[in-house]
Amino acid sequence: LFSIILFFIVLNLLVLYKDSTPLTYDAEGYFEESVKYFQILNQEPKNIFLVFFEEKYDIETRPPVFMLVSTPFYWTFGITEDVARITNFLFYIIIIIFTYLIGKELGNKKIGLLGSIILSTIPLFFGFLRMYYTDFAAATFITMSFYFLIKNKYFQERKFSIYLGIILGFGLLTKKLFILVIIGPLIYQIFSSKKNKIFFKNISIILILVLLISAPWYLSQKSTIFFWLNESSNISLSKNDIDVFSFNGFNYYLFAMKNMILHDIMFFVFIFSFIGLFFIKNKHKQNLILWIIIPYFILSLVANKVPRYFLGLLPIISLIIALILYRIRYKFI
């Protein structure tokens, strides 16, 4: 696992060294905002929690965790766009570790290792590792949430309920879209759980932790949150948006997986593997199927569709491929 992580980090550092493409669009905005956080922490560290409430700090209405994580890198290496991009390397290490851990839960460490390798080679994933967007960090928190949902055993484990509550809280402070990916699997787990005293205690712990961590920021952004909810749910916003209730709307991410996210060969391997899931025995099979179908459906209902919104599902896609390939090798080779 360490070798996989080291190889792909070195490879991306080499690409960064050769690539002089500047940050643009949202990535540029995230970078500028992260620099503001760094300056505030340097000059007025006691006021870091006031930046969301006072207009004088001129902070945008984006969840702050991703930009705040960049500040230690700025202190260590200086403020440059390439240093900002290196922030994702930390999240890459975490997402690979948790992909591996989920793979172990699905079967064994070989599935985890294979899933980690597949994930690292997915074109969209490999490319966004060097881009300064919040989506990569959000994908990391989504993957961690999936792992703790498995370990939580339908909300019967106190320790993992605490971990899940913490991760959900910080996930909400990383990207607002985080909730759209995780809400379906979370609700499924809740409805499938045994409703005993342990369940209600653990659900309460999760809710309290989520609120303690994320509520202060969201309460400071009430007007913009309502605007975002309205924006996300509108059937069509502009000529660039795809109608929600249409063939193109529901097939957008399917075609995006083929043309931009996975590309041809890996896309067909995934489709084959996803169908194969229905014919194998695995105690987590239903979770894997629903963790793809439910977020896919919810993301398809959002008017603004972008391939990078699918980053959070790539670890599960990689593990589904790894699980089926391992079963094929085990049975026929």
Description:
The chain is mainly alpha-helical and 333 residues long. It has 16 helices and no strands. Helix 5 (81-106) crosses helix 16. Mean pLDDT is 84; it is low at 235-240.
Shape: globular
> What integer is the average pLDDT?
84
Distance between the termini: 24 Å
What is the string of SSEs from the N terminus onward?
Answer: HHHHHHHHHHHHHHHH
Provide a count of the helices.
16
Report the major sheet: none
Outline the secondary-structure elements.
Elements: H1 2-18, H2 25-43, H3 65-69, H4 71-77, H5 81-106, H6 109-121, H7 123-128, H8 134-151, H9 158-172, H10 178-192, H11 197-220, H12 222-233, H13 247-261, H14 264-277, H15 285-301, H16 314-332
Helix pairs in contact: 1-5, 5-6, 5-8, 5-16, 6-16, 8-9, 8-10, 9-11, 10-15, 13-14, 13-15, 14-16
Descriptive keywords:
single chain; 333 residues; mainly alpha; 16 helices; 73% helix
Provide a compact summary of the structure:
The protein has 333 residues and is mainly α.
